[in-house]
Specification:
The structure holds two protein chains of two kinds. Chain A has 20 helices and 28 strands. Chain A is an alpha+beta fold. By secondary structure, chain B is α+β, with helices and mostly antiparallel strands. Chain B is 35% helix and 15% strand. Chain B has helices at 22-28, 84-91, 101-114, 120-126, 138-156, and strands spanning 2-7, 10-15, 47-50, 53-56, 69-71. A five-stranded mixed β-sheet of chain B has the order 2-1-5-3-4, sandwiched between helices. In chain B, a hairpin with a 2-residue loop joins β1 and β2. Classes of the chains: A alpha+beta, B alpha+beta. Chains A and B meet through α1 and α18 of A and α2, α3, α4 and α5 of B.
């Protein structure tokens, strides 16, 4: 199936790699502009309170303070900080600064000063008179009949049911699940809970802003969504879009947390009011407390199946904690069902219901996996229990149920991202091979047969399977511009947003492939709202598939222009000409160089700029597929779980750059292992985060990692650029259910609450009488 | 206070506060490769070499660096040529966002200077204080092993 490519499919170095390994000042915080003001943020010590008054005079009197921003002197427009397509599916429930604070860490005021030290000193001089309200600190408290109302303001829009603290709700059904369960020989039901977790990119959020030669606001931001940032900042600050330029330099990781407009409008307002550059960086503590988190969820899954294990009914009910604001509340909730349920398309009866509720807790947001991660935990736990119940090998049970090439699922159409989805038939699916190859690599049969062993340390192997998507169909859009230079090089201008993923490189590879040049003849420039065409940005596993298609189309148009000029030069027809090795060659062997073609177009006859802009809007969202395997050791005396080996066999279509594709999987798996075993935001009884630093919030380090063995399984997606689909998110869904199932295989205990800390595992073992 | 800092062989007279970290002082001098990921010595992104040893620059008072030879990644590669650790990082796909990369390379450089043929375990333990959220460490550790080979072969040749 796979075609032969020259540049695509090779392990090109990253186009920005040399700058990064030599430490060039290419990140948002690396820019030094003269007379820059430093911005610092005062946040709420209370989970729920009304601000009765703020006295900023002490801060304003401090030498070196330029201004203090509060609700009293800033725009009152309601908006969402979620950087999504317009109109955003998230409620407009936030204000730049509000008269009410809704979580510990919510914004109260900002100070701009001559130095960071002065700005921080000034924060301590602001006096705030709070009327403290009873806080709502759990999903159950939020849904209680007499619960305090978190969003009682009258100007919020898009909230499902503010009076009952419900930010968003979903209820879809295919067939009749009750009839399906009645007709089933086996019914399995499980409920799993996932914790508050934080993205922890090593670079925090950073924004710098200044006015350009025309007095326009320039925002230099570590963002995943420059175009959405421009639109939202313009709306909040009541500026025309044409007065704002957002530029994204290199970004030090995002994972979803930078798909959020958190600093841009504050920094921008300081610049607008003072005329001076401003700089605003979140501290690591603010990253944990005041930025965004993964929505914690409680998800119940009920499966009904025949004696043969073929599913007849699936019901999934999700309760999501969106925290104080509804950013991504509806869409993350939707994806908990839409990115999981189509995987098991044999079931004729399927239901998904869910609510995302407000609490006075840190705010949920986009996080790699985007709800699917939370849904796969109970789904793949229930599938494993079903296999146990029927005495089937867990791989065989998946084989009897998973979606295959040429098949669809009614869920694709019934459930999209916050609205109806799009009907689609899967055109590439190598999941069966993923299962086979992954099982071989982990030595599944031998290890399952060997059993857990005796003594305090027991071993087990487990697996889970997954799908995700490639962009949001009929919503996402990407565009690319390519223009040719007279030395035969090309500028590739893309709105697509490389946040460390390598998208600048792989999009360059796609252009180079079409144009018949090496990658170093493609000059990639991305993510500048003045200079590059529109792209929704880096989220929803969209860039390779959606932006890649736009690049391929633009390159094809440019190639046609090149062939037209070359045909004249070679005195032949364009048809039959081929590009390659930086030349255009005719069937008779005559050729011209690309440099000569462009030189003629610029300086010779019939002059014009060889160049094109093309767009892409996906009509479907082809899922990548993953079979994920782990071997674990469980110490039944201490409850410590150690992952000994991890295999991820993935179908991402054509890997445009195989090493980078592997890197996406390896990083996602590592993040998922942290989420499964160690990472958890802990709270005091009043809703304050106990562990807002990287010493106490434990992300994996080198010594915590098992070998992660990635298998890129041969596959070709016919609707994708060069056969590619996505890979960025899917890997993070694997570790929780895979490790949980491996633990069950080792010690016979089903864990239903993440993370699987030694204490939790030990208690579960004790309750089960194992230790 | 005014201190003399020697960075990549160049002397600087820097005005620093009594509590100012070496990280902030180096960034103020323009050495932007010294990254602030946590300000608490947890992440390793601010790693520099101080008399050849890797330190978290956020945990060192700037004045304590007086009289030492400091190396940042800006001064790590010889003029025009990349160090084996940099080349191997590019070729193994060890760099994703690259924010943690200078710290990882300098920590590894300290290791290799004192132990030119480390075991996998020694590499992992040395790098335990350098967080990377993008790569899962597979390829950065592979890059260091690759650099060990390159340096050995270079020395043999």
């Amino acid at each position: 199936m796979a075609e032969k490519f020259d540049v695509v499919g090779t392990n090109e170095r990253k186009v920005d790699g040399v700058a990064l390994v030599t430490g060039k000042p290419v990140f948002a915080g690396d820019l030094d502009l003269p007379a820059t003001l430093s911005v610092a943020l005062l946040t709420s010590p209370h989970a729920h309170a009304v601000i009765k008054g703020i006295d900023t005079s002490g801060a304003e009197d401090l030498e070196g303070v330029a201004m203090v921003l509060t609700h009293a002197n800033t725009p009152t427009t309601r908006y969402t900080t979620a950087g999504q397509g317009h109109p955003e599916p998230s409620p407009y429930d936030a204000r730049m600064f509000d008269t009410k604070v809704r979580f510990v860490g919510d914004r109260v005021a900002a100070v701009a000063a001559e130095s960071q030290a002065v700005a921080e000193e000034a924060l301590g001089l602001i006096e705030v008179d709070y009327e403290v309200l009873p806080p709502v600190l759990s999903i159950d408290d939020a849904l209680a009949p007499d619960a305090p109302v978190i969003h009682d303001e009258d100007d919020a829009t898009g909230i499902w049911d503010a009076a009952r603290n419900i930010a968003a709700a979903v209820d879809i059904a295919v067939g009749d699940v009750e009839a399906g369960f009645a007709d089933s020989e086996v019914v399995i039901e499980t409920t799993c809970e996932t914790q508050y977790a934080q993205h922890a990119p090593v670079e925090p959020h950073v924004v710098q802003s200044w006015l350009d030669d025309h007095g326009r606001l320039v925002i230099y931001s570590s963002t995943q969504v420059p175009f959405h940032a421009r639109r939202i900042v313009a709306r909040v600050l009541d500026l025309p879009v044409n007065r704002v330029r957002v530029v994204k330099p290199r970004v030090g990781g995002g994972f979803g947390v930078k798909q959020e407009i958190l600093l841009e409008e504050i920094c921008g307002l300081v610049t607008l009011r003072t005329g001076r550059p401003a700089s605003f960086t979140y501290s690591r503590e603010q990253e944990f407390v005041s930025s965004r988190t993964r929505h914690p969820m409680r998800v119940r899954v009920k499966l009904g199946a025949g004696d043969d294990g073929v599913l007849k009914a699936i019901e999934m009910e999700a309760l999501s904690n969106t925290g104080a604001y509804g950013t991504h509340s509806l869409t993350v909730l939707s994806n908990t069902g839409s990115k999981t349920l189509p995987l098991y398309n044999k079931a004729p009866h399927v239901r998904f219901v869910g609510k995302a509720v407000y609490t006075n807790m840190p705010v949920g947001g986009a996080y790699r996996g985007y709800g699917a991660t939370q849904g796969y935990f109970p789904l793949e736990t229930a599938m494993d229990r079903l296999a146990d119940e029927l005495g089937l090998d867990p791989i065989e049970l998946r084989r009897r149920n998973h979606i295959r090439e040429g098949e669809g699922s009614p869920i694709f159409e019934e459930l999209g991202e916050g609205r109806k989805g799009v009907e689609q038939t899967v055109k590439s699916c190598a999941l069966a091979e993923c299962l086979t190859l992954g099982a071989e690599r982990i030595d599944w049969e031998a290890k399952r047969a060997a059993g857990p062993g005796e003594g305090p340390k027991r071993r087990g192997v487990g697996l889970s399977i997954h799908m995700q998507g490639s962009g949001i169909p009929l919503i996402d859009m990407a565009a690319a511009t390519i223009k040719m230079n007279e030395d035969g090089s090309f500028n590739l201008l893309i709105g697509a947003t490389d946040i460390g993923t390598g998208s600048d490189t792989i999009l360059g590879q796609i252009a180079a492939e079409v144009l018949g040049v090496p990658l170093d003849k493609i000059i990639v420039y991305s993510s500048d709202t003045d200079m590059t065409p529109f792209d929704v940005g880096a989220y929803a596993s969209s860039t390779t598939y959606v932006s890649g298609t736009a690049v391929e189309r633009a390159a094809v148009e440019v190639k046609e222009q090149i062939l037209g000029v070359a045909a004249t030069m070679l005195r032949t027809e364009a048809e039959g000409l081929e590009v390659g090795d930086e030349r255009v060659t005719a069937p008779d062997g005559e050729s011209v160089t690309l440099a000569a073609v462009c030189d003629r177009a610029m300086y010779g006859a019939d002059q014009f700029q060889i160049g094109a802009t093309a767009s892409a809007v996906p009509e479907e969202s082809p899922p990548p597929f993953l079979a994920s395997f782990a071997e674990v050791e469980v110490d039944i005396e201490t409850g410590l779980v150690t992952v000994l080996d991890y295999v991820a066999a993935v179908d991402c279509g054509t890997p445009i750059n195989p090493k980078m594709a592997e890197g996406q999987m390896e990083g996602a798996v590592a993040n998922g292992i942290g989420y499964a075993l160690t990472e958890v935001m802990e709270f005091t009884p009043t809703g304050r985060v106990r562990n807002p630093d990287l010493a106490r919030y434990k992300i994996p380090g080198t010594v915590d990692m098992p070998p992660i063995r990635v298998i890129l399984v041969d596959s070709f997606e016919p609707t994708g650029p060069m056969g590619a689909k996505s890979i960025a998110e899917i890997g993070i869904n694997g570790p929780i259910p895979t490790i949980a199932n491996a633990i069950s295989n080792a010690v016979g205990v089903r864990l239903t609450e993440t993370p699987f800390t030694p204490e939790k595992v030990w208690r579960a073992l004790r309750d089960a009488g194992v230790s | 206070m005014r201190v003399q800092l020697t960075v990549n062989g160049t002397g600087h007279a820097a005005d620093v506060g009594p509590g100012e970290s070496l990280m902030d002082a180096l960034r103020a001098l323009g050495y932007k490769s010294v990254k602030n990921g946590c300000d608490h010595g947890d992440c390793g992104s601010c790693t520099v070499l101080m008399d050849g040893r890797a330190v978290n620059a956020c945990l060192v008072f700037a004045y304590r660096a007086e009289g030492t030879e400091l190396t940042t990644i800006e001064g790590f590669a010889a003029e025009g040529a990349l160090h084996a650790l940099q080349t191997a990082s590019l070729d193994t796909g060890a760099v994703q966002c690259g924010f943690c990369t200078p710290g990882i390379i300098l920590t590894a450089a300290d290791l290799l200077a004192h132990n030119p043929d480390p075991t996998d375990r020694e590499i992992a333990e040395t790098l335990a204080g350098n967080y990377c959220r993008c790569t899962g460490y597979t390829k950065p550790l592979e890059a260091i092993r690759e650099a060990v080979t390159m340096l050995r072969e270079g020395a043999d040749g």
